[in-house]
Write a structure and sequence with these properties.
Blueprint: E1 10-18, E2 21-26, E3 29-35, H1 38-48, E4 54-59, E5 67-70, H2 71-74, E6 77-80, E7 88-91, H3 102-115
Parallel strand pairs: 1-4
Antiparallel strand pairs: 1-2, 2-3, 4-5, 6-7
């Protein structure tokens, strides 16, 4: 939704799905079906559509925003939380372009090898 508020240009609505997953709504449509880093994932999705400016996040059912950020800057970041550290912002890195989990490939390759030798690395 385009804002008349001078402190932000656009707003996304965050809908909790459970287990730290969120659905992101933008201009009354689903922008992201499910993600674990909604504000920064939304910045990347909006930037991919050519949308720039200031973004506000708001939890569904709340009357006030919770986070404001620049879309272009936010697209370069990811929130990360580890067992030994609290939440922090880190540089976003894209997932492998083939979209395949490397661990899953390794386990499958090992299972194929044991089952009769499938050639790998074509």
């Amino acid at each position: 939704m385009t804002s008349a508020n001078p402190s932000f240009d656009y707003e996304i609505i965050l809908h909790p799905l459970g287990r730290d997953r969120w659905r992101v709504e933008f201009e009354s449509e689903t922008l992201i079906e499910a993600c674990d880093d909604p504000a920064y994932d939304a910045c990347r999705a909006l930037l991919a559509r050519g949308i720039t400016g200031r973004l506000q996040t708001r939890l569904a059912g709340q009357e006030y925003g919770s986070l404001r950020l620049d879309i272009e800057h936010g697209a370069k970041l990811r929130a990360q939380e580890g067992a030994a550290s609290g939440p922090r912002l880190v540089k976003w890195r894209p997932y492998p372009t083939d979209g395949i989990c490397r661990v899953a490939v390794t386990e499958k390759a090992a299972a194929d090898d044991l089952a009769g030798g499938v050639a790998h690395g074509n």
